[in-house]
Structures are given as structure tokens and as C-alpha cells.
Write a structure and sequence with these properties.
The chain has helices spanning about 35, 60-65, 75-95, 100-115, 120-130, 130-135, 140-145, 170, 205-215, 235-240, 255-270, 285-295, 305-320, 340-360, 365, 430-435, 455-460, 485-490, 525-535, 540-550, 555-560, 570-590, 600-605, 610-620; strands at about 45, 50-55, 160, 185, 225-230, 275-280, 300, 335-340, 370-385, 385-400, 440-445, 470, 495-500, 505-510, 510-515, 515. By secondary structure, it is of the alpha/beta class. The structure holds nicotinamide-adenine-dinucleotide, (2S)-2-hydroxybutanedioic acid and magnesium ion (MG). Belongs to the malic enzymes family.
Length: about 625
């Protein structure tokens, strides 16, 4: 089977290059066309011009029954790489000026075709060009892919467990060909980015997330598993779409729903007890419920709640540093959070914990600095002549304890009457920003454009010398505001971060408005990798806190001063190695680390921080062609 390619730690300085990996000989038990059709072993690629470029040396052709199945010319991996990149760049040129959706889907298709044919080359071009390709195989384009799923995927990826498979999952799980699985990303398609319920089409999210696990954390692509729990969909458009490939029924609810998740989790834990399970893009009520249900039974975490919380906390601490204030000044920051969903409440809960630890006071006291805005639905009755009309009125406003049907998960963050500076229950976002003058305005609402010109202008009166605008909703069109609008209306001295990537803004006179990507991609790969290599059976708040603190401390003073709160995506492998080390060392400190492979708990406990980073790095898979036959 495939061996982990070794990558020396020295190559993992903050520059990006990796030294050459030293592949071990790898036996393959397939022959002839079966090898060409297996993207894991295939060394041929099809470029746009339609002919095969092939990297199989003559020895392998003779010994693996490939002679005559390929054109005679053997070209190197580097030549194949250059050929693919040439095809990609010419696609970019030929589609210039076409609508964003057309261009990004065309780019996704050429990458997906390579993924289907030659995984080694696919992951190498992804790792080497992560800044260009992450927005295509991940956010924001992955949202478009999910919306157009039925017409896009050529080769099925991952596994699908549906409500019709009840009672069958324990046997189904053995249909997956890999004996070992390290990372599983699971969704039920109920809240795909800010696009809502996309049913079975949401499988694109686990696939994209796991591509980031391979690219950022060096998880071996033969040991990943994207999973869709298809429990139906409430998306009427999909139910009526004759091409829809999922169950044509409304979503399961209550115990029926949980029974499906339980059965899947039991099956996967039985076959791969050490696999890490990441829950992704579940609607809020199930996101919280499943996290509490499984986090003490399986090594799992919910990325939208916990991964996002860590990334946002790192950005909040960075925005304190950007004001030239000591980190402990975080407890004096006034923060407005728009969206009390799985992500928004996850962020609030981690931020309150961090602030109350810093201030040494109760979480109740600390909550004063946070203001939460979310939807409220009120029943109004009007009398019209003899008839009485009842109408449901939905609006978005400040969450206070006076709110009638307050979601229990949001209750801890509801303001008491005396804490709202004269504001009323349901005060609008603009009223809150004008009155509170917040240091930070953070959006996780899923609704594009709600940080409108008035709201952004009101942020000019912020109590902060560097007001922070975090428009974290995805994909791009769902961002609470664009980077250009933020710098234009809130002023040039803001710090800005968004969930989807925007280009930096040219402010004129040589000044640049730096745009950060506040996306959980900076943490989930390190959380998964650190938990995996630690051998811990659970992912604790302490491990997640360590991940967030590692990300928060990663940036240098000069980067922070420029308004750069997160690392460039080009250094995502370096930050992932450090986050993974922080998570592993937290597991050791909590005596949860049982080791991984030949490295036991004692060795882990004796590693210094630097040695832990190196250990993590040494275990990052890197794509190179391995010999498929022994030379002699
Ligand atoms: N940047 C990241 O890393 C990251 C991480 C997780 C989620 N997200 C994004 O955040 C968004 C929300 O994700 P979620 O899981 O919390 O979804 P969710 O559906 O659980 O929560 C969204 C919340 O926003 C509220 N809301 C909607 N419109 C609003 C408005 N105008 N004003 C105030 N509140 C409003 C809803 O009532 C709901 O409570 C999505 O777009 C998602 O893609 C980004
Ligand atoms: O998927 C992402 O880009 C981040 C996050 O998990 C989200 O749901 O938006
Ligand atoms: Mg998500």
C-alpha cells in the first residue's frame, strides 16, 4: 500500500517550499487498464487537447501490463504538471470577461477532471497553487457546485447513508474500499454555507473540506471519507426537480432523524474507532444537539460551531493588537454579533470564556461587552371591521431578556434591561451600532449586504482606533458587506475580514486596505490532524482553545499593524502544523493522548514544542509519484 511520503521539517519554514519527499517502493495489485482507471495509481493525465500525457516509466509498463495502452512517449511529473497548468491558464484566458459563475464552474471542472484521473498530480497542483485553487475547490465556488451538483459530478465520491438504509449501515460501511480512514467530514445538507437546505447536493462540502485537509494538513487522501446523511430535504425546488438525486421526501425530524445519525456513528466507530469525525453545515438545532450527543463518545467536533469560534476569537484578539492595546484589553472591547445561529453562538460562547478567563470574573459579567442581534417573530392581531386578523411579523433586532420566544441556546447572551444603554428589545442593527459604538461588528447571519452604507458609516464613530468589520458569511454573495464597501464607508483605518476571499483594496497614495479571510480553514485541518496524531478519544474545549491561541499568536507585530490578522493562505501548511502541535500538546497536558502508530504517549509527552511541530510535519503526506514495482 501507499507509504507516507516523508517531508523534512526544515523545509517547513515560513516560506512555502517543501523538500523532495522520499517515496518508498509501493506494490500495486492491479494490472493494465485497471491501473489507468484508478486515480490513486494512475500516472497519466488527459489535457484539454485530448491526448494522454503519461508518466509511467518503461519498467512499469512492461511489468504492469501497460505496454501498448499508452502513447509511447514518457514524460516526467514536472512536465505533466506544467502541461496541466498551461491548460488551466489558457482556460482562464479564454473565459475572461464571462460571468463569474461560468468561469468558476469551468475552473472547477478542469480541476475535478484531474482529481478523477490522477490524484497525485491533482493534490500537488492544489498544494502548490492553494491561493488560486482553494476558492475553486472550496469556498466560495463549492457552494455553486453544490447548487449545480446533479449536472457536475462525473465520478461519485464519498458515501451516502440515507433514511432508506436504516438497519443496513453496519454492513454498508464495509463497502468503502479503504481499510484505514483517518478523517471523515459528515453533513446532512441542511445548511450549506449561506445557501440553506441543498439536500444530497451538499456532498460537495465534505469533498471540498477534505481536499483542504489533504492540502493543508497532509492527511493521506486514501484515508479520507466524505459522507452525506440523506434524510430528505425541505427544499421544494429540489423535490420538484426531476434530476434531483436524493430522497424525495421532507427531512426526517426528532427521534427518527437522530436514529439515523446514531446508526451511522455507531457503524463508523465500529469499523474505524480512531477516525476523526467532523460535523459540517448542519442546521443549528442539530448542530448543537449532535455535538452534545457525540463529543464524549467519539473523537468528533462541529466545525461551524467550534472551528469558527476559534478563528473568530483569533481575529478578535488580533483586532485588539491592531489597536496597539495589550491582549487583556479584550475584556473592554464592545462586540456586536449579528446572527445567533450555530456559528454566531459558537463564537460568543468561546469569546465569553476567553474574556472571563482574562478578567478573572464570571461569564455573566463578561457577557456585558457582547450585543447579539437576531430575528424575532411576533404575532400581531389587527381588527378590521368585524374580523380579527392575525399576522406573523418577522424582524431582526437586539436580543434581550424581554424577547418572548427566545431560543434557549441564545438565552445566555440576551441583554438584561439595565445593560442596553437605553436601547430597547429588538433595536435595529443601526440603532445598536450608533448607541454602542462597538469596537467590532461581526456578521454570521448568512445574509448578504446587511452591513449597509448607513451601518458602515456609523462604524466611523466606533470606540476603537481601528474598528473591525468581520463579514464572515459565505459564499461571497452572502457576505454581510464587501471589502470595498467596508473600506469606502467605514473608513480606511478599519481592519476587515470575510469568510470568502476578497482582493486587497487599493486605497490610493500607496496605501493598501488588507483583506483577511476569517475562515475556519485556518483551524479545522490542524484540529483534525492534532487530534489524530495525539490518539485522543475526544476533542476537548482545552484542545480547541489551544488551537485558537496558536492562530491568534501567529502573526507578527508588523503584520498586525498593517491590519493583517490571519496568515496568507500560502502558508496554510505551516500554520496547520503549528495548530496541530498545539492541539496535540493540549491533549498531552489533559492526559488524553494515547499516541498514534509507533509513537506512544510517553514519546509525545517528552517532545518539546519544536519537536512536536516537527513530528506533525513529518506525518504530513506530500504528493509524489511512487514506484509501482520494485526496480529489480
Ligand atoms: N467564515 C467562516 O469560517 C464561517 C463558519 C461558519 C459559518 N459561516 C457562515 O455563517 C453563516 C451562518 O452560519 P450558521 O451555521 O450560523 O447558520 P444558522 O442558520 O445556524 O444561523 C444564521 C442566523 O442568522 C440569523 N439571521 C438571518 N438574517 C439575519 C439578519 N438580517 N439579522 C440578524 N440575524 C439574522 C438567523 O435567524 C440565524 O439565527 C453562513 O453564511 C455560513 O456560511 C462562516
Ligand atoms: O465552509 C466554509 O467556507 C466555512 C464554514 O464552514 C461555512 O459553513 O461557511
Ligand atoms: Mg461550514
Amino acid at each position: 500500500m501507499w507509504r507516507l511520503a516523508r517531508v523534512t521539517a526544515t523545509s517547513l519554514s515560513r516560506s512555502r517550499r517543501f523538500s523532495t519527499a522520499i517515496p518508498g517502493p509501493c506494490m500495486v495489485h492491479k494490472r493494465g487498464a485497471d491501473i489507468l482507471h484508478d486515480p490513486w495509481f494512475n500516472k497519466a493525465i488527459k489535457v484539454i487537447r485530448g491526448y494522454d500525457d503519461t508518466g509511467f516509466p518503461l519498467t512499469e509498463r512492461d511489468r504492469l501490463g501497460l505496454r501498448g495502452l499508452l502513447p509511447p512517449r514518457v514524460i516526467s511529473f514536472e512536465q505533466q504538471y506544467a502541461r496541466f497548468m498551461e491548460s488551466y491558464r489558457s482556460l482562464e484566458k479564454n473565459t475572461q470577461g464571462q460571468p463569474y459563475g461560468v468561469v468558476s464552474l469551468a475552473k472547477w471542472r478542469i480541476l475535478n477532471r484531474l482529481h478523477d484521473r490522477n490524484e497525485t498530480l491533482y493534490y500537488r497542483v492544489l498544494i502548490d497553487n492553494i491561493k488560486d485553487f482553494a476558492p475553486i475547490i472550496y469556498t466560495p465556488t463549492v457552494g455553486l457546485v453544490c447548487q449545480n451538483y446533479s449536472g457536475l459530478f462525473r465520478r461519485p465520491r464519498g458515501m451516502y447513508f440515507s433514511a432508506k438504509d436504516k438497519g443496513e449501515m453496519m454492513s454498508m460501511i464495509y463497502n468503502w474500499p479503504a481499510h484505514q480512514v483517518d478523517m471523515i467530514v459528515l453533513t446532512d445538507g441542511s445548511r450549506i454555507l449561506g445557501l440553506g437546505d441543498l439536500g444530497v447536493q451538499g456532498i460537495g462540502i465534505p469533498i471540498g473540506k477534505l481536499d483542504m485537509y489533504v492540502a493543508a494538513a497532509g492527511i493521506n487522501p486514501q484515508r479520507i471519507l466524505p459522507v452525506m446523511l440523506d434524510v430528505g430535504t425541505n427544499n421544494q425546488e429540489l423535490l420538484e426537480d426531476r434530476l434531483y438525486l436524493g430522497l424525495r421526501q421532507p427531512r426526517l425530524e426528532g427521534e427518527e432523524y437522530l436514529a439515523i445519525v446514531d446508526e451511522f456513528m455507531e457503524a463508523v466507530h465500529t469499523r474505524w474507532p480512531k477516525a476523526i469525525v467532523q460535523f459540517e453545515d448542519f442546521q443549528m438545532k442539530w448542530a448543537f444537539e449532535t455535538l452534545q450527543r457525540y463529543r464524549k463518545r467519539v473523537c468528533m467536533f462541529n466545525d461551524d460551531i467550534q472551528g469558527t469560534a476559534g478563528v473568530a476569537l483569533a481575529g478578535l484578539l488580533g483586532s485588539v493588537r491592531a489597536q496597539g492595546r495589550p491582549l487583556t484589553d479584550f475584556v473592554n472591547q464592545k462586540i456586536v454579533v449579528v446572527g445567533a445561529g450555530s456559528a454566531g453562538l459558537g463564537v460568543l460562547s468561546m469569546a465569553v470564556q476567553a474574556a472571563s478567563r482574562m478578567a478573572g470574573n464570571s461569564e455573566a459579567v463578561t457577557r456585558n461587552q457582547f450585543f447579539l442581534i437576531d430575528k424575532d417573530v411576533r404575532l400581531y392581531t389587527f381588527s378590521l371591521s368585524q374580523t380579527c386578523i392575525e399576522a406573523l411579523y418577522q424582524f431582526y433586532g437586539l436580543v434581550t431578556k424581554e424577547r418572548k420566544n427566545l431560543d434557549p441556546a441564545a438565552a445566555p447572551f440576551a441583554k438584561a434591561p439595565g445593560e442596553i444603554m437605553g436601547l430597547k428589545e429588538g433595536a435595529t442593527l443601526l440603532e445598536v451600532v450608533k448607541k454602542v459604538k462597538p469596537h467590532v461588528l461581526l456578521g454570521l447571519s448568512g445574509v448578504g449586504g446587511i452591513f449597509n452604507e448607513e451601518v458602515l458609516k456609523a462604524m466611523r464613530e466606533s470606540a476603537s482606533t481601528k474598528p473591525a468589520i468581520f463579514a464572515m458569511s459565505n459564499p461571497t454573495l452572502n457576505a454581510e458587506c464587501t471589502a470595498a464597501d467596508a473600506f469606502k464607508h467605514a473608513g480606511e483605518n478599519i481592519v476587515f475580514a470575510s469568510g470568502s476571499p476578497f482582493e486587497n483594496i487599493d486605497l490610493g497614495n500607496g496605501k493598501v486596505g488588507y483583506v483577511n479571510q476569517a475562515n475556519n480553514m485556518y483551524l479545522f485541518p490542524g484540529i483534525g490532524l492534532g487530534a489524530l496524531l495525539s490518539g485522543a478519544h475526544f476533542i476537548t474545549d482545552g484542545m480547541l482553545q489551544a488551537a485558537a491561541e496558536c492562530l491568534a499568536s501567529y502573526m507578527t507585530e508588523e503584520e498586525i499593524e498593517k491590519g493583517i490578522l490571519y496568515p496568507s493562505i500560502n502558508s496554510i501548511r505551516q500554520i496547520t502544523a503549528e495548530v496541530g502541535a498545539a492541539v496535540l500538546r493540549a491533549a498531552v497536558a489533559e492526559e488524553l493522548a494515547e499516541g498514534h502508530g509507533e509513537v506512544g504517549p510517553k514519546e509525545l509527552a517528552h517532545m518539546s514544542k519544536e519537536e512536536t511541530v516537527e513530528y506533525i510535519t513529518q506525518n504530513m503526506w506530500f504528493p509524489v509519484y511512487s514506484p509501482l514495482v520494485h526496480e529489480k
